[in-house]
Amino acid sequence: MHCDPRFSRVREVFERHFADGEELGAAFAVYQDGELVVDLWDGVADRHTGRPWERDTPAFAYSCTKAVTATVLLQLAERGLVDVSAPVAEVWPEFAARGKAAVTVEHLLTHQSGLPVLEEPVPVEAFEDQAAIAARLAGQEPLWEPGTAHGYHALTYGFLVGEVVRRVTGKSVGELVAAEIAGPLGLELWVGAPDDVIPRTARLKAAERPQALKVTEAGAAPTGEGAATPGAAGGAGGTGQGRPEDLVAAMTRAALDPQSLMNRALGNPAMHRLQGGANNPVILRAGWPAAGLVTTARGLAGFYRSLAAGDILRPETLREATRTRVNGPDRVLLLDTAFGLGYMRPSLTFLMPSGSAFGHSGMGGSIGLGDPERGLGIAYVMNRMANALSGNLRGIRLVEAVYQSL
């Protein structure tokens, strides 16, 4: 392990989490101005076998994937292969069906397309054919007029953006990440884990299902498959923050209602029906572009280091992509959300100490973020999933400790 003395506060917080029994296994990494200043790991990768968490132990990072997928598309936009402001139907003609002719690529990246739910139940194994899933979405009618509201597309985001990528290049997001980003930069980061990576991937431990909702400084989210804070999908369609007790009541209703928008958005595909859930090799190798990232903390922090340094996208492209496009009430999350072009921006669901930070968090509490103004790339991955109601304060504390150390 390595921790620059300037960031000793970070190491203290990391070690305290283990001493207090909050962690099972975890890793945290920080790059500043291109230098790896924090590289910490500890605990066990598999509680059943006692396998220790090693320097190269990767973890499944759920929705942290979305920022990587957005970056692939933005690379194509830089090359003139995709116009973010143009209708999706220009590259995917079938998508124009059922009132979607005017839906733009930007609408997909900012969760405004009105397609957060795959309406027909589909077995998890069928999601191997991502183009077929995208075709199902192309045949659906939006749940709201695209461009008039936003709602977190927890899983459909990846099949929608991924199909635009496939139509333009003939390749999957995972293939392009390997060829254009992870491979050239030497990053331990995969959208779809190779067979030799799966055995050393950390085994996730699901959070206990809590009995009551509460709001904490990390926000709030209801119980259910996929719910977590910060940044993972939570409630049903809401209209804003309101009083905390009203918000909690609405979240509770959504959590208990199988037909709520939240449960419909997060329940198809139903990962939990596979043996081991997200630990199943089917999920780890699937490479879903919304929730398929397998990465070490160092690999994900290195991704943001390279973004902040201009090694993946031109600085002007990144500035435009991280400009907040939507901010406020979320049709799928009750808490307000804020997004640039695929990147989360600071909000109640992406609690950051700096307004210049961008990135994405994932179910259970994993976090990846960059901050070009401070030259930072930061990532946290773990295998003890956060309680969906109280949020994962572990990652937030670590990020805060980094900024306090600057």
UniProtKB/TrEMBL annotation:
Residues of the Beta-lactamase-related domain: 13-394
EC main class here is: hydrolase
What segments bear the compositional bias annotation Low complexity?
A: 217-231
- Keyword terms: Hydrolase
- SUPFAM superfamilies, per database record: beta-lactamase/transpeptidase-like (SSF56601)
Please state the Enzyme Commission number of this protein. Answer: 3.1.1.-
Q: Which GO terms describe its molecular function?
A: hydrolase activity
Composition bias, kind Gly residues: at what positions? Answer: 232-241
Which residues does the annotated region (Disordered) include?
217-241
Return the protein name. Esterase EstB
Q: Which organism is it from?
A: Nonomuraea coxensis DSM 45129
